[in-house]
Each structure stands twice: as C-alpha cells, then as structure tokens.
Amino acid sequence: MTAPDPMSAMRRPVGGLAPSHFAWATAHDGRVGIVTLNRPARKNPLTFQAYAELRDLFRALAHASDVRSVVITGADRNFCSGGDVYEIIEPLTKMEVPELLAFTRMTGDLVRAMRACPQPIVAAVDGVCAGAGAILAMASDFRIATPDARTAFLFTRVGLAGCDMGACAILPRLIGQGRAAELLFTGRVMEAAEGERWGFYNAIVPPDALFDDAVRRAADLAAGPAFAHAMTKTMLQQEWSVSVEQALEMEAQAQALCMGTADFARAFAAFAAKRPPVFEGN
Q1: Which residues pair with 189 in a beta bridge?
Q2: DSSP assignment letter at 46
Q3: pLDDT in tens, 213-259
Q4: What is the residue-averaged pLDDT of the chain?
Q5: What span, in angstroms and rounded, lies between the C-alpha atoms of 217 and 25?
Q6: pLDDT band at 3, cuts 50/70/90?
Q7: What is the SS3 assignment for 67-106?
Q8: What stretch(es) of the chain map to CATH 1.10.12?
Q9: Residue among 278, 235, 279 nearest 256 (CA)
Q10: What would the mean pLDDT of 185-211 be, rounded to a whole number?
C-alpha cells in the first residue's frame, strides 16, 4: 500500500472561503475562483481590511487542492478606484512613518502573493481601474478589458511616487520603459484601446461579454496542466532578474520536472490515441 504523500496532505480546498471585504465564488466544478470587488457605490475601492484579506486569499491559493485559475473583477461596471479616500487615504495622512511603512509593506505583500500563487490570474476590467486597482490588474497574468476601461496609475496626483506596489518593476516589463515612465510620472488615464495597443490588455471585449469571456479563459487554463502552468508562471516571474545562461538552466530543470508528471504521460497517450488530453494537475 502506497504511503500518503505528506505534501499533498497539506493542500486544502479554498472554494468555501467566506471573506468579509470582497465576494468570492467558484465556477466550473470549483476549478475557477472568482474575486469580485463589491463596493459599487464608491467604484469598488479597497480598505485596509480588503488589502489584508486579498493578500491572505492569494497566499492560501498556493496550497489549494481545488482552484486552478482565478478571475478578479469589480461590481457594477467598474473594476477598482484604488484605496478608499476616507478609509485609507485620510487615515494615512495622520500616521507616523513606522505605521506607514507597515501599510506599504502590506500592500506590496498583496502583489507578492498574486505573483507567487501558482494559479494564472485573469483580470476582467471595466470602467475605473485606478491607483491600487491598476496595480491589481498589472499584477494579474492576463488582462481583459471593455472599451470603457480607464486605467490610471495616479499616485503622483496625490503627491506620492509612481513606484507603488511594484509598478516601477512590473509595468515597464509589460509596456516598455518609456510608456511606463509616462504613465507613472503623469498619472494620466490610459484608454482601453491604447492599453491593448501597448500590450497591457490582452483583449478588448464588449461590456456584456466581459465576465463570461474572462471566466471562459480561466476555465480553459484550469482544464490545462496545472503543474506546468504553475511552473510557467514561476519562470516568467523568476527569469526577470537572471541572465540568459541562468534562464536556460532554470528552464531545463523546470521542463525536466514537467516531463516527470502524469500529465505529460497522459498527453502523449492521448496524442497516440488521437483524442484530446485530459489533465489532472499531477
């Protein structure tokens, strides 16, 4: 009898989580997790508690036994207007530097958790996508928008630096140094068509198709080889800061690990039998 795998025993379902500061649901037999920022009266701003709960959710996803891809979106035709003016911005003006540093480190931890979780994240963006909302979209793996999406990294508009939550590291890699510098210095709005042309958005879809399109993309990813997708995401993250020589060795090791999975063997068997492969994430 095969002994139980202690690492597998550490994995647990996260579909049943019940966060208090955003909505969480699953689709496609629990394989797709859906985060909905749901304070529509104020265009879905974040609070201290929402930051912390989102960070904790993405940390938990690293050990999930069920969810294999994630959609993040906003309620009522807006994505996210950033930090709540009265529940975050105003209190920050009254804090001392140690408290301010604790806050900025927490917001950075949210991005770190999004980039570290193995599941691909699809951002479905409509309407306002500003400040920390733009960062949530930026930190996702795919970004789908409507023609009405208006994205702004507006930190300089409130007297802060553009280097917030990894923006100076991640945004130039998505759209180029010069374009990122323009957005981060000026805080101006990037319209949806411009964002797609620059490579920030993967696709533009009609507003009434946004949610279904994002969930479909996430479901397609969830039906794929979960271990291989996690490895791809890890390499996309880690290879930013290594030489090509190091990257080649890292990818050799990563691919060898993937070749040792049951999913790889299943894919060959399916090809030989002339049928579509079914991946089980192992």
Answers
A1: 152
A2: B
A3: 999 999 999 999 999 999 999 999 999 889 999 999 999 999 999 99
A4: 94
A5: 16
A6: low
A7: CCEEEEEECCCCCECCECHHHHHHHHCCCCHHHHHHHHHH
A8: 226-272
A9: 235
A10: 98
The yes-or-no verdict on residue 281 having pLDDT over 80 is no
Alpha-carbon distances, residue 33 vs 22, 117, 129 (angstroms): 13, 13, 21
Contacts 24+ apart (CB under 8 A), 211-216: 211/71, 211/73, 211/124, 213/124, 213/144, 214/71, 214/73, 214/122, 214/123, 214/124, 214/144, 215/27, 215/28, 215/32, 215/34, 215/71
What percent helix, strand, coil does the chain show, rounded to 5?
50, 15, 35
CATH topology of domain 6-222: 2-enoyl-CoA Hydratase; Chain A, domain 1 (3.90.226)
Q: Which of 2.30.30, 3.30.230, 1.10.12, 3.30.420 is the CATH number of 226-272?
A: 1.10.12
Type of residue numbered 104: T
Neighbours of 107 (CB within 10 A): 22
Distance CA 142, CA 257 (A): 25
- State the pTM of this model: 0.93
Q: In this structure, what token pair is assigned to residue 139? A: 């930190």
